[in-house]
From TrEMBL:
Broad class of enzyme this protein falls into: translocase
Superkingdom assignment: Eukaryota
GO CC terms: endoplasmic reticulum membrane; late endosome membrane
Catalytic activity: ATP + H2O = ADP + phosphate + H(+)
GO molecular function, one term: ATPase-coupled monoatomic cation transmembrane transporter activity
Protein name: Cation-transporting ATPase
Length: 1146
């Protein structure tokens, strides 16, 4: 089509999102549709099949381009590297059906108001809406903006004020009806796919169509046995696939079925609160949440009250999460960006369970429906299962190229066959059969099945190790891993945290550490009160539940938790609030208990949490807990000890996790919910440090050592303190003792330049005061110029990463090359970091098993191809039983057992060939094809020059103990065998033996073992199969059994000629083995070739690596860079496709 479009014909759908697509407008044309229909009939269904495989061709053939506004068909194309096409019909929704019930007319206020997308989509005066459905999401045509837009969710531009004013009182019945009709039902409807649909979809796979063609051809040639074998294998494969897909469909249907049948309470603007089925919900509806253990049927914004939610369905972690109401601010900014905290803390996600719902002043918990149906978080999860991302493009492309090479070879063979058989005067029917037969020989129909067995075996081995894969085709792609990002807590370190101690402080500075191991209880004071109240723990069925850190901290106080009863009357304290009380054995605690009134939940972006609490009969207090640096920034400077930095460093450099605590007294004249977070989190009094020990897992160091020895980069991305992360990196072996760590700190500045970045060497020294502990780290301001000695690692915080991304984008790839430690990273920053690493990706594919099978199947087909073409020269061929023996008894058994080799137990420090078309792999295939061709030609010509050879004589056997000069020659006429035109001949016998045994030799040579797979001798079944096959072939070769020869359509030859055949095969084996081991698999030789010819990888990663290695000024030390310096700003940037391969192809 090109890139030239009519005005308004082309646009982007979901621009900037993960599921971004290009959209093209088309209009169906009657005459084109008629021609396509006629073509479908006259092509006997081939044209519709082609259109099924190529959706874009269907649209181009049936339609003409037009603007999207006029289109009745749209063509969609993904913007990823796959460029996948699909097409959808544009439908109409008619609002006239609402006229009789609600009197909806073109001049109705709800129709004329064009503030929202729903209103802008209504075409006036006929009251209808153009829409389409793509991957379960409905899109409507925005008449004002002239584009298709997603419907079924509230607009992103809405401010918190607008949400409260517009939707805080609910929708009218008319608004609900209009939205319900346009947005569709609030259902995640996954229908169970009928078996006949799955069957048709599977059967229409190009692979099975090719098999059908092959089987039909074989039946016409009376090659029934192998045809039946392929049919049985195909039926079994189709049945298993359909069964698998059906089971997945049923499971997914059952998983989401309950979502569509929930009863909810909805508050209408005039109708009041009413019970409603969840499928009738629309964006903007006002939900009234009552009771506990409630499943959310949609995504909703909490506007009143608070909720404790179990988000295990989304995150996999069943830790209760506290949701707070969206504050009603005066800001006109979009509600998602109006605060620095994560907006998700106000959102109740579909599929999550509300454990507790607590009302505020009004006594009710209310939420505005944000998204419905497949637009919700749960719907998006289901859609990702229904429409998974395609496989790695390069692997797919290489496989297609490989098959196209085989097709090209088959085409050459077809031309050769046509010439030979036409010149020989054969019948047209025979000529066509022989020409088509070449295709099924050159492109083996069993190739996909053989490759699938390797994946099945790999999946089974993973399952034995407790690893499950829902997309088995992706197992091979795991070999692409060259960089692994680790979280710290719970991944490198143990899940549980041990409370080591607490360091109180007062005006004079830090006090002596209080160790909980001593068994002494913490004395009463603000620090004790902070530990007892500043958490998100809840009491559920008499059990305290919540974050493990919060639980450890609360348990250390030995206090108890309860819920306030109806008789609990304290001003501003709601009934059923969480109350913490000192245990009965505690003494000298002047308060009866403390009620937790309000929470500002912990956020990774904010790195802190705050609670408002009320002492029974005492003061109202605010307590803060979080990252020490953040907490200290909210405290009165005089309350933060002058030794804060050194004290914090002394613990973090030992690998401890450190939490800071602070508090202040609040005025009693405001309700707790009326206080803003900014007002509460100011002028705090610093209380001290909470020290938690997080030990490394036993398996961490060995795993990292193996990855590093295999030259797979390891990176730590954590939300914890930077110094703690550096220490853990050293302890775990991620950074070795001989390697340096360079700390990068970047900050935004006022004026010009807009940002600065400093580079400091982190030096390891012994800490005298904690000599029994590990080392600690000191940042040197002045260092000698020895930073380039040995290797180095960069360490930086999330804040610095953000500044570098915005102001030093040209330096970012340089930093990522050696960036190992990223601390205080928010979830969004973690995602950005992974995306940046992907731009530098060193793509490789450890497809050794699949590559072996590709090579073998290619050689098997080419061996058979070469032999058959040589026999075609005499208008001869292999007989059906000869084909059957090679196809079924040899290749099928090898294909089933060849992939049974397990993975080598140790990773090696280099990678296998990264692609199917890598030079070593291509050389291996081409060399063995040429070697087999030479052997077949030598055998074909040499047999014709034997003294006993005669075209008229077709049986030569020697008497025992007699020489060749005394042959018994049995004259027989050449006899055609079956219907495929084959006849017995010495050439046929020679070619068959050479080809059959050569298939076994090739399987042995290509069964690569170390260093990526276990040695071939460990694959006992495969070795046994090869031994039996070779023994049977040798027995047939040397056994003078007339009946056996007659069955296999072979001729007896002299013993000496049989020895010649063995010599040719042995020579082939020795040469192939020597070349494979000495050249193809000789990594050192290929590296030498690359150096001699000056080859250098063109990947971004290698280019940057070479540039930095030759840069004497890198890495920077004891320097400060500014964003306006040459080469530091945004002017010099880089771009690299995510899947760009820069593996050195070996």
């Amino acid at each position: 089509m090109g890139d030239h479009f009519e005005k308004g014909q082309h646009a982007l759908l979901n621009e900037g999102e993960e599921n971004e697509m290009e959209i093209f407008g088309y209009r169906t044309q009657g005459c084109r549709k008629t021609l396509c229909l006629a073509g479908s009939i006259f092509s006997f269904g081939i044209l519709p099949l082609v259109f099924y495989w190529r959706p874009a061709w269907h649209v181009w053939a049936n339609c003409v381009p037009c603007s999207l506004q006029e289109a009745d068909v749209v063509l969609l194309r993904t913007t990823d590297e796959f460029q996948t096409y699909s097409w959808k019909k544009v439908m109409w929704i008619y609002l006239s059906s609402l006229n009789s019930e609600f009197g909806v007319t073109p001049d109705h206020p709800l129709i004329t108001d064009e503030e929202f997308i729903i209103n802008r989509a209504i075409r006036k005066p006929d009251l209808k809406v153009r829409c389409m459905k793509v991957q379960k999401i409905r899109y409507v045509w925005n008449n004002l903006e002239g584009q298709f837009q997603k419907i079924g969710c509230l607009e992103d531009w809405l401010s918190s004020t607008k949400i409260h004013l517009k939707f805080g009182s609910g929708l009218t019945r008319e608004e609900q009806a209009i939205r319900r009709l346009i947005c569709g039902p609030n259902t995640i409807d996954v229908k169970i796919t009928p078996i006949w649909k799955l069957l048709i979809k599977e059967v229409l796979n190009p692979f099975y169509i090719f098999q059908l063609f092959s089987v039909c051809l074989w039946f016409s040639e009376d090659y029934k046995e192998y045809a039946f074998a392929i049919i049985i294998m195909s039926i079994m494969s189709i049945a298993l696939t359909v069964y698998d897909l059906r089971e997945q469909s049923v499971k997914l249907h059952r998983l989401v079925e309950s979502h569509n049948s929930i009863t909810v309470s909805v508050c209408g603007r005039k109708a009041g609160v009413q019970e409603l089925e969840s499928r009738f919900l629309v964006p903007g509806d006002l939900l009234v949440l009552t009771g506990n253990k409630v499943q959310m049927p949609c995504d909703a914004i909490l506007i009143d009250g608070s909720c404790v939610v179990d988000e295990g369905m989304l995150t996999g972690e069943s830790i209760p999460v506290t949701k707070t109401p969206l504050p009603k601010t005066e800001s006109s900014e979009p509600w998602k960006t109006q605060s620095e905290a994560d907006y998700k803390r106000h959102v109740l996600f579909c599929g999550t369970e509300i454990i507790q719902a607590r009302g505020a002043c009004s006594g009710t918990v209310r939420a505005v429906v944000l998204q419905t149906g497949f637009n919700t978080a749960k719907g998006d999860l289901v859609r990702s299962i229904l429409y998974p991302k395609p496989m790695n493009f390069k692997l797919y492309r290489d496989a297609i190229r490989f098959l196209l090479c085989l097709v090209g070879t088959a085409t050459i063979g077809m031309i050769y066959t046509l010439c030979v058989y036409v010149l020989s005067g054969e019948s047209p029917e025979e000529v066509v059969k022989k020409a088509l037969d070449v295709i099924t020989i050159a492109v083996p129909p069993a190739l996909p099945a053989a490759l699938t067995t390797g994946i099945i075996y790999a999946q089974r081995r993973l399952k034995k190790r407790g690893i499950f894969c829902i997309s088995p085709q992706r197992i091979n792609v795991c070999g692409q891993l060259n960089l692994v990002c680790f979280d710290k807590t719970g991944t490198l370190t143990r899940d549980g945290l041990d409370l080591w101690g607490v360091v109180p402080c007062d005006r004079s500075g830090f006090q002596e550490i209080h160790s909980f191991a001593s068994g002494r209880s913490l004395p009463w004071g603000p620090l004790c009160a902070a530990m007892a109240t500043c958490h998100s723990l809840i009491l559920l069925d008499g059990t305290i539940q919540g974050d493990p850190l919060d639980l450890k901290m609360f348990e250390a106080t030995t206090w108890e938790m309860a819920l306030s009863g109806d008789d609990f009357h304290i001003k501003g304290v709601p009934a059923h609030a969480v109350v913490v009380k000192p245990c009965k054995t505690a003494s000298q605690v002047p308060v009866e208990g403390i009620a937790i009134l309000h929470q500002f939940p912990f956020s990774s972006a904010l790195q802190r949490m705050t609670v408002i609490a009320q002492e029974m009969g005492g003061d109202r207090l605010a307590f803060m807990k979080g990252a020490p640096e953040r907490v200290a920034s909210f405290c009165q400077p005089e309350t933060v000890p002058t030794s804060f930095v050194s004290e914090l460093q002394s613990y973090t450099t030992q690998g401890f996790r450190v939490i800071a605590l602070a508090y202040k007294k609040l005025e009693m004249d405001h309700h707790s919910t009326a206080l803003t977070r900014d007002k509460v989190e100011s002028d705090l009094i610093f209380l001290g440090l909470l020290i938690l020990e997080n030990r490394l897992k036993d398996e961490t160091k060995p795993v990292l050592e193996e990855l590093i020895s295999a030259r797979i980069r390891t990176v730590m991305v954590t939300g914890d303190n930077l110094q703690t992360a550096i220490t853990v990196a050293r302890k775990s072996g991620m950074v070795s003792e001989s390697q340096k760590v360079i700390l990068i700190e970047a900050n935004e500045t006022t004026g010009s330049p807009s940002a600065s970045m400093t580079w400091k060497l982190v030096e390891e020294k012994k800490h005298i005061a904690y000599s029994n502990q590990n080392n600690y780290i000191n940042i040197r301001e002045e260092v000698s110029d020895n930073g380039r000695e040995g290797s180095y690692h960069f360490a930086l915080s999330g804040k610095s990463f953000q500044v570098i991304s915005q102001h030093f984008s040209s330096l970012l790839p340089k930093i990522l090359i050696n960036g190992t430690i990223f601390a205080r990273m928010s979830p969004g920053q973690k995602s950005s970091l992974v995306e940046e690493f992907q731009k530098l990706e060193e793509g490789r594919a450890a497809l050794v098993t699949s590559f072996c099978m590709f090579k073998y199947m290619a050689l098997y087909s080419m061996i058979q191809y070469v032999g058959v073409l040589l026999l075609y020269w005499e208008t001869n061929s292999l007989s059906n039983y000869q084909f059957l023996f090679q196809d079924l008894a040899i290749t099928t058994l090898i294909g089933i057992t060849m992939n049974l080799n397990g993975a080598y137990p140790k990773l090696v420090p280099f990678r296998p060939a990264g692609r199917l078309i890598s030079p070593p792999l291509l050389l291996s295939v081409i060399f063995n094809i040429l070697l087999s061709l030479a052997m077949h030609i030598v055998g074909f010509i040499l047999v014709q020059r034997q003294p006993w050879y005669s075209m008229e004589m077709h049986s030569v056997c020697t008497l025992q103990n007699e020489s060749i000069s005394k042959l018994i020659i049995s004259p027989t006429a050449p006899e055609k065998i079956g219907s495929n035109g084959a006849f017995t001949s010495f050439e046929n016998t020679t070619i068959w033996f050479l080809g059959t045994i050569n298939c076994i030799i090739v399987a042995l040579i290509f069964s690569k073992g170390k260093p990526f797979r276990q040695p071939i001798y460990t694959n006992y079944i495969f070795v046994l199969v090869l031994v039996i096959q070779l023994s049977v072939c040798l027995f047939i070769l040397f056994a003078d059994i007339p009946e056996l020869y007659r069955r296999l359509d072979l001729l007896c030859t002299p013993i000496l000629w049989r020895v010649y055949i063995i010599i040719m095969l042995s020579s082939n084996f020795i040469v192939s083995l020597v070349v494979e081991e000495a050249i193809i698999e000789n990594r050192a030789l290929w590296m030498t070739f690359k150096r001699c010819f000056g080859y250098q990888s063109k990947s971004q990663y290698r280019i940057w690596q070479r540039a930095l290695a030759n840069d004497p000024s890198w890495p920077l030390l004891n320097q400060t860079s500014f964003s306006d310096m040459p080469g530091c700003g945004r002017g010099v940037s880089y771009s690299n496709p995510v899947f760009e391969s820069n593996e050195e192809q070996l």
